[in-house]
Specification:
77% of the residues lie in helices and 0% in strands.
C-alpha cells in the first residue's frame, strides 16, 4: 500500500514530464509499427512459390483420398455434396462479411443474394467449370478407374488443355520446348488411356474413368484461363465457386434424393466418414487449394501454373501404390515418366502479373 502511494505521488509530481514521455513513446511505437508490418509482407515470388507447394500437396492427397473414398460407401454425388457444404460453411459467411461495408454504403455488389462477391455471369462461369462440373466428373471417375490413372490423366492433361485454351483466348504463344513437352504428355496419356480403351472390348469400364478424368481436367483448365483473362481475385473467385454450387447443387440434390431419382448412401455412412469428407474435400480441396491455385495462376500464368504441378503425378502414383496397393504396370510407369518429363519441359521462369491486372472488375452485377 505504501509503495503504491509513493509511486502515485511521484507520478503526480512529474505529471507533465511523464505525459510528454508517454506521447513520445506512442510516437515511437506508431513509427515502428508500419516498418514491422512492411517487414512481415512477403514478396510476390514467395507467395507464388508457397501457393504452388501447397497446391501440389493437396492435389496429391486429393487423388489418393478420392480413390480410397470410392470403396468406403459414399457415392460420387455424396462426396460432391460434402465438398460443397464444407466449403460453404467457411466461404459463404466470409463473402457476406466481405461485402457488408459496400452494402451499408448503398452499393449494389455481388450476386446470389449476397453469397457471391462476383457478378452473376462470372459467378456462374467459375462455379460451373471450377466447382460443380469438375467435382462431379472427377469423383465419378474414381469409381471406374484407379488413382494411378488419375495421376497421369488429370494433372497430365491440364497443360494440354490450358495451352490450347490460352492460345485460343489469351493469344499466348507456344514455345518450341513447351510444344515438345506437350508431345510427351500426349504420348503418356495415350499409353494409359489407350490401354484401358482396348480393355473395353473385353467388358472393362476403366476407360470411362479415364475419359472423365480428362474432361475434368479440361474444366479446371478452362477455369484457370478464365481467372487469368478476367483478373479474378483469389478469395473472391473461390467464394463465387462455393456460392454457385451451394445455391444450385444442394437444393437439386435434396429434391432428387427426396423423389428417389438420385441414389445416396449418406444415411448409411458413419458420421466420421462424412465429417472427414467435409473437412478434406471442402476445406482442404476447395478453400485452401482453391485460393493457393488462384494465387499461383496470378503469378505464373495458367499454362506454367499447371506445368509446375509436375510432382503431382509421381507423388500421387506412389501414394496409390503405397497406401492403396494398386499395381504399377509398364504402361503406367512409361506414361508417368512421359507426362512428368513433358511437364518439366514446359516449366519456365514466370514474370509476375501486375497487381492492377488481377483485381476484380467492377464488382457489380
Amino acid at each position: 500500500m505504501g509503495a503504491s502511494r509513493g509511486n502515485s505521488s511521484l507520478s503526480k509530481s512529474n505529471g507533465p514530464l511523464a505525459g510528454r514521455d508517454d506521447v513520445q513513446a506512442a510516437k515511437v511505437r506508431c513509427g515502428r509499427q508500419p516498418r514491422m508490418i512492411r517487414a512481415m509482407r512477403f514478396s510476390s515470388k514467395t507467395v507464388g512459390l508457397a501457393s504452388a507447394v501447397i497446391t501440389v500437396f493437396i492435389w496429391t492427397g486429393f487423388i489418393v483420398i478420392a480413390r480410397a473414398s470410392a470403396s468406403r460407401g459414399l457415392l460420387p454425388m455424396d462426396i460432391a455434396l460434402a465438398r460443397i457444404l464444407g466449403a460453404s460453411v467457411i466461404l459463404l459467411p466470409w463473402a457476406w462479411w466481405l461485402m457488408r461495408p459496400a452494402r451499408l454504403a448503398g452499393e449494389k455488389v455481388g450476386s446470389l443474394w449476397g453469397l457471391s462477391p462476383l457478378p452473376l455471369r462470372q459467378t456462374a462461369q467459375t462455379g460451373f467449370l471450377g466447382g460443380l462440373l469438375f467435382a462431379i466428373l472427377a469423383y465419378t471417375g474414381f469409381f471406374y478407374a484407379p488413382a494411378s490413372h488419375a495421376s497421369v490423366l488429370m494433372p497430365g492433361s491440364l497443360p494440354l488443355w490450358t495451352t490450347l485454351l490460352a492460345w485460343l483466348f489469351l493469344r499466348e504463344k507456344v514455345a518450341s520446348t513447351r510444344a515438345l513437352g506437350l508431345g510427351f504428355i500426349v504420348m503418356g496419356d495415350v499409353l494409359v488411356g489407350g490401354a484401358s480403351l482396348l480393355m473395353a472390348f473385353d467388358g472393362g469400364e476403366v476407360w470411362k474413368g479415364d475419359l472423365l478424368f480428362m474432361i475434368a481436367a479440361m474444366c479446371w483448365a478452362s477455369y484457370s484461363v478464365l481467372v487469368r483473362s478476367q483478373g479474378f481475385d483469389a478469395v473472391r473467385a473461390t467464394m463465387a465457386i462455393s456460392a454457385f454450387a451451394f445455391v444450385f447443387f444442394v437444393p437439386l440434390f435434396v429434391v432428387l434424393v427426396g423423389l428417389q431419382i438420385l441414389p445416396t448412401q449418406l444415411h448409411q455412412a458413419p458420421w466420421s466418414e462424412i465429417l472427414f469428407q467435409v473437412v478434406f474435400q471442402g476445406v482442404g480441396s476447395v478453400v485452401i487449394s482453391g485460393i493457393t491455385f488462384t494465387h499461383m495462376v496470378r503469378y505464373y500464368g495458367p499454362v506454367r501454373s499447371t506445368m509446375i504441378t509436375a510432382l503431382v503425378p509421381g507423388l500421387s502414383a506412389l501414394g496409390a501404390v503405397w497406401f492403396l496397393g494398386e499395381p504399377m504396370h509398364w504402361n503406367l510407369l512409361t506414361g508417368l515418366a512421359l507426362v512428368t518429363g513433358g511437364i518439366l519441359l514446359g516449366v519456365r521462369q514466370a514474370n509476375p502479373v501486375p497487381s492492377n491486372a488481377v483485381t476484380v472488375p467492377g464488382g457489380k452485377s
